[in-house]
Amino acid sequence: MIDDRINQLKLDFNRFSDWEERYKHLIDLGKKMPPMDEAFKVESNLVKGCQSQVWLHAELKGDIITFQADSDASIVKGIIALLTTVYSGSTPDEILCTRPTFLEEIGLREHLSMSRANGLNSMMKQITFFAMAYKAKLSMEKK
Predict the structure, then answer these.
(1) Choosing from 36, 47, 50, 106, which is the catalytic residue?
(2) Fewer CB within 10 A of the terminal residue: the chain, N end or C end?
(3) What is the pLDDT of residues 15-50, one digit of tens each?
(4) Which domains does the chain show, CATH number per domain?
């Protein structure tokens, strides 16, 4: 469940006393992320609005969305790993009902440069877009 993953994320980040340690943890999250299938590293999966290259692929299995992602920048890869950890394995409604307030609660937003903050917003918009599209698809299938 999304709330459980968010609570675990908050516990993980609250273990660290300063932002240098938290950045290291963020980079480790990116390094531990499962590798993205090379077939999904295509133009259509690039997240627009990111200074670095960020690929985000979504797949609907039943009513659950799973995400695969990658980036060519270590901190950005950690950010997309954090987002996919929270949102992957959820229904479209769960994703759409979960505001990303956890990003403020762990202090991430306030420690990002303007360009990384814009990239984070673009990643969240893309995740939301996938959730809205799959929600529409599921509602069409029910008719």
Answers:
(1) 50
(2) C
(3) 998 888 999 999 999 999 999 999 999 999 999 988
(4) 2-138 (3.90.1010.10)
